[in-house]
Every structure is written in structure tokens, then in C-alpha cells.
Amino acid sequence: MPTYGYQCTKCDHSFEVFQKITDEPLTECEKCGSHVRKVLFPVGIVFKGSGFYVTDNRKPHTPPSGNSEGSKSSSETAAKTETPSNN
Question: What is the DSSP annotation of 31-69?
Fold first, then answer.
């Protein structure tokens, strides 16, 4: 059975009641007898599974263009490729 929340419009008393979906909503406060309104609760959503959020809401990852060394400058790359000769 679902739980429904109610709040009194006069005394601000809040309470929850287990009711069938087919039951009529309550109209009177259990504390003072004034009119009550139904309170809606936020629903928690949990996404399960591998990659659901990433693959559905983002563009595919593309590596940056240029050399495969990442963000190293060309002088660093050139210095790495030069090796001292042993004569």
C-alpha cells in the first residue's frame, strides 16, 4: 500500500497515512479537524547499468589532434629523439 502525506492548512500539522490507491483522499486534519491538502514527495531515481548516462548524453570522446606525446612541446620531443653518440 502506498504512503500518502497530508498537511493541515490551518495548524500546519503534517502526517502520513497508508492508503489504497482506490481510497478517497483525506479531507480533515487528525489533530484539529481543519481542511488538509495532499503533499507530494520527490521520487528518487537511480540509473543502473554500465554507461547509460555517459553514452546517452555525451558525444563520444575523441583524443586531441597533434602528436601522440600529449601536450609536450616540439623542442622537448626533438630533445628526446636526439641521442648522444658513443664514439
Answer: TT--BEEEEPPPPP----STTHHHHHHSPPP-PPSS-TT
DSSP 22: T
**Annotated domain spans of the chain:** 1-58
Q: Closest by alpha carbon to 34, among 26, 42, 44? A: 26
Show pLDDT as tens, one digit a residue, over the chain (87 residues). 788 999 999 999 999 999 998 999 999 998 998 999 999 888 788 777 666 655 555 566 667 776 555 555 555 555 555 555 555
Burial 50-82 (b: 16+ CB within 10 A, else e): eeeeeeeeeeeeeeeeeeeeeeeeeeeeeeeee
Q: Tell me, which fold does domain 1-58 have in CATH?
A: Rubrerythrin, domain 2 (2.20.28)
- Cell triple for 65: 589532434
Model pTM above 0.85:
no
